[in-house]
């Protein structure tokens, strides 16, 4: 058994970025009309805002998430590559 | 003519693995054979909630509720799929519902019990195979849902004899409930006039440099990390070779880290997800295609490689064993063995004439055995067995 399987098997061992990516998919933040604010994501994921911002910045840098500003509020959602990355875990 | 419903969590452009392509190929050909096909799937950014694609009526369903837990989310989207199916059954009297994998099982089972209609289930892979064991509560639940779906289905379809053995053993299914129908490809899509030189130039492959290609989801079952570990061994014999890895997946970070640790990161390119056209261009331009899977119910990527005329080096596992004839239509290597993978690649790159002979044999075999027309006819036969 390769070491990689620990990631497949135990949610708690997953890097937080991957966990966040999966959660964003599962709670439905998959396109701009369904984008969520940091506060909303924090409520869903129980992650603190500063930690979330770090992870979201990294996910945006990797091309898995996207953000835009609407009425002075930052909103976040997955990109198509981000959705594919999440779904690959279960297919 | 039958009225066929299909339930699948992925359908183009929502492409994750092989299920989307298998559903597309089958549904298109069923339509060609005059069946009325209604396909229910999940939404995807930029795609309409209803459209007709090559005669297939495609219903994309939005999941109005979410939950961070994956299994809870699956239950929720199955509810919305069921709701959409229920709406359509007001005007369409389905003969059969074809369910693809556990992810759409709850919706399919509801259809069966509410409408007293038969369901056919295709098991594309199993949790115990994908995860190489059951290591978490989620895995146990998924395994349970898979068993439940095979129990509820009127007939079960798998894509290879190895999968039939796997599910009959693992789920205690009677052998006579399971039909083996291989996947196929539309070979005409792979006859391209791609400008090999231009494609290689686009990816920075210089004159005289070998291009070693690997295409697949970046998940452990595809064994891509073993291919990456083979690269230093290949480089001893072919220092000028370059490596392109096409695909996206949750273990990409780990595989990229492995590539950096190999000392050859500057010769390895990760493209991420690529369009069908780009994959075909790359396959047409590569010197060898590697399929290093450790678990493979079928291995459609090997067929795609065979269709483009690239020699295929593949692990001797699962459905690949039924596709490739060693040293005649491809080269087999041991799974999880970088040394064996390096040996197989060396064998192809060292002998151009033999590699060419292999690709000619592979093309012949492909045309003889793997067409969607045959797959659709066999699938329709299965439908007829369950339609009362």
Q: Could you say which structural class the secondary elements and strand pairing of chain B correspond to?
A: alpha/beta
* Most extensive chain interface and residues per partner: A-B, 33 and 43 residues
Q: In percent, how helical is the residue content of chain B?
A: 40-55%
Shape of chain B: globular
Uncertain runs of chain B with pLDDT below 50, 5 residues or more?
none
Low-confidence segments of chain A, given as residue ranges, are: 1-13
N→C terminal distance of chain A: 19 Å
Assign an overall shape of chain A: globular
Number of helices of chain A: 5
Largest sheet strand order of chain B: 3-4-2-1-5-6-7-8
Helix fraction of chain A, binned, reads 40-55%
Strand order of the largest sheet of chain A: 1-3-2
Written description of the protein model:
The complex is a heterodimer of chains A (about 90) and B (about 400). A 3-stranded antiparallel sheet of chain A has the order 1-3-2. The two termini of chain A are about 20 Å apart. In chain A, helix 2 packs across helix 4. The relative contact order of chain A is 0.18. With about 90 residues, chain A is of the alpha+beta class. Chain B has 15 helices and 14 strands. In chain B, the strands form 2 sheets. Chain B has an 8-stranded mixed sheet, sandwiched between helices. In chain B, strands 11-10-9-12-13-14 form a 6-stranded parallel sheet, sandwiched between helices. The longest helix of chain B is centred in the N-terminal third of the chain and has 20 residues. The mean pLDDT of chain B is about 95. At the A-B interface, helix 1, helix 2 and helix 5 of A face helix 2 and helix 9 of B.
């Amino acid at each position: 058994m390769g070491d990689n399987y620990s990631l497949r098997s135990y949610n708690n061992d997953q890097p937080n970025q991957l966990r966040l990516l999966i959660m964003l998919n599962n709670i439905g933040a998959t396109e701009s009309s369904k984008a969520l604010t940091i506060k909303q994501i924090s409520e869903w994921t129980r992650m603190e805002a500063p930690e979330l911002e770090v992870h979201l910045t990294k996910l945006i840098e990797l091309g898995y998430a996207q953000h835009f500003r609407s009425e002075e509020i930052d909103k976040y959602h997955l990109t198509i590559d981000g959705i594919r990355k999440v779904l690959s875990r279960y297919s | 003519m039958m009225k066929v419903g299909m339930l699948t969590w992925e359908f183009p452009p929502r492409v994750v693995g092989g299920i989307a392509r298998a559903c597309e190929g089958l549904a298109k050909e069923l339509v060609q054979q005059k069946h009325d096909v209604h396909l229910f799937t999940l939404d995807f950014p930029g795609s309409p909630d209803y459209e007709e694609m090559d005669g297939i009526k495609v219903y994309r369903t939005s999941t109005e509720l979410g939950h961070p837990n994956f299994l809870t989310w699956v239950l929720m989207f199955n509810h919305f799929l069921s709701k959409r199916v229920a709406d359509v059954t007001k005007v369409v009297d389905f003969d059969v519902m074809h369910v693809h994998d556990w992810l759409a099982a709850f919706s399919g089972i509801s259809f069966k019990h509410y409408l007293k209609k038969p369901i056919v289930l295709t098991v594309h892979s199993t949790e115990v195979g994908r995860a190489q064991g059951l290591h978490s509560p989620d895995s146990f639940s998924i395994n349970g849902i898979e068993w439940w779906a095979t129990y509820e289905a009127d007939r079960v379809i798998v894509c290879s004899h190895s999968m039939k053995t796997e599910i009959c053993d693992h789920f205690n299914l009677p052998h006579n409930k399971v039909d083996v129908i291989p996947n196929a490809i539309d070979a005409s899509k792979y006859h391209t006039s791609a400008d090999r030189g231009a494609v290689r130039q686009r990816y920075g492959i210089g004159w005289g440099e070998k291009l070693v290609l690997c295409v697949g989801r970046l998940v452990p079952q595809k064994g891509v990390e073993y291919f990456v570990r083979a690269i230093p061994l290949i480089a001893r014999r072919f220092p000028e070779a370059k490596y392109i890895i096409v695909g996206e997946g949750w273990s990409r970070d780990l595989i990229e880290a492995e590539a950096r640790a190999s000392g050859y990161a500057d010769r390895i390119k990760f493209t991420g997800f690529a369009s069908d056209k780009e994959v075909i261009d790359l396959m047409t331009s590569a010197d060898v295609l590697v399929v290093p899977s450790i678990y493979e119910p079928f291995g459609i990527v090997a067929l795609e490689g065979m269709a483009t005329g690239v020699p295929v080096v593949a692990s001797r596992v699962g459905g690949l064993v039924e596709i490739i004839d060693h040293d005649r239509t491809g080269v087999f290597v041991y799974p999880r063995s970088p040394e064996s993978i390096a040996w197989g690649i060396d064998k192809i790159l060292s002998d151009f004439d033999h590699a060419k002979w292999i690709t000619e044999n592979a093309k012949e075999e492909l045309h003889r055995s793997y067409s969607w027309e045959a797959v659709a006819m066999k699938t329709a036969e299965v439908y007829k067995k369950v339609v009362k």
